[in-house]
Amino acid sequence: MRYFLEIAYNGKNYFGWQRQPNEISVQQVLEECLTTFLRQDISIVGAGRTDTGVHAKQMFAHFDFDGIADLKNFRYRMNSFLPYDIVINDVKVVKDTAHARFDAKERTYHYVIVTRKDPFKDKLAYQLFHKPDVDLMNRAAELLLGRKDFKCFSKSKTDVKTYYCDIKSAFWIEDGSKIVFSITADRFLRNMVRAIVGTLLDVGFGKKSLANLEAILNSGDRSMAGASAPAEGLYLVEVNYPRTIFGVGNMQ
Question: Helix 71-81 crosses helix 26-38 at what angle (to 10 degrees)?
């Protein structure tokens, strides 16, 4: 049977989601705990890859195993195995063909910025000491909407067939000393959100204009865009799937 895990994690202690040869990753910790608990070698496939230091409020991964009779008890016992900074929030039985990565329809990321010193946001937000022009950044974010070639915001030497992504929404919300960028798309390229945030901040601080941003989008040239924003402010917050893949079993 195939199972979907709904996971959340604080990424500051990990070198990203994907297994690394010499560094600790979220995938490695989960696979080792599942292998120990189920007494069988378990490999998991995630909905995507988060970079070193990036967090997830909702990540999904699938694995195959027969014989989990009580999913609620399984989740409880697995969480007692896992370190404090990784949690399994749900376990679902899904169709045998369901795929955590390829069946995902949309993903939403948030990027969190604080504009004053906050000890409770250490490594959990990007601290700025000057406030950017949020209204101008929202005007810039509107230029991102739709299906476009986003090679200008992609990490170089990325092995992808296409740089086209369909951005459904992109906007900034200001709440006191906290500024949050929300972006939803059908897919994201490596380093894309952090590159977008860095470029929009350049607009917000007057280093780039809206016309500059349009030129960057048309260029396909990563060197024209802004520097990538730091990893600690980035959160994967939602992954959406068609309901049809959950045709077997119910949410526990």
Answer: 120
Low-confidence ranges of the chain (pLDDT < 70): 157, 247-252
Cα separations in angstroms, 49 against 4, 17, 194, 210, 219: 16, 5, 14, 30, 26
Q: Is residue 251 part of a domain?
A: no
Q: What is the CATH number of the domain that holds 183?
A: 3.30.70.660
Q: For residue 71, what are its two tokens?
A: 């999913």
For residue 222, the enclosing domain spans 107-237
Pick the last residue of a domain from 76, 102, 128. 102
Q: The domain that contains 96 carries what CATH number?
A: 3.30.70.580
Residues 6+ away with beta carbon under 8 Å from 213: 140, 143, 199, 200, 203
Q: How far is CA 57 from the centre of its chain?
A: 8
Report the pLDDT value the prediction gives residue 9, as an integer from 0 to 100.
98
Q: Are residues 161 and 77 in the same domain?
A: no
The whole model's pTM is what?
0.94
Catalytic residue IDs? 51
Q: How far apart are CA 109 and CA 141, in angstroms?
A: 14
Which pLDDT score is estimated for 249?
A: 46
Return the pLDDT at 161.
Answer: 87
Distance between start and end Cα atoms, the chain: 16
Confidence (pLDDT) at 67:
82
Predicted local distance difference test score (pLDDT) of residue 252: 38
State how far the Cα of 66 lies from the Cα of 12, in Å rounded to an integer: 33
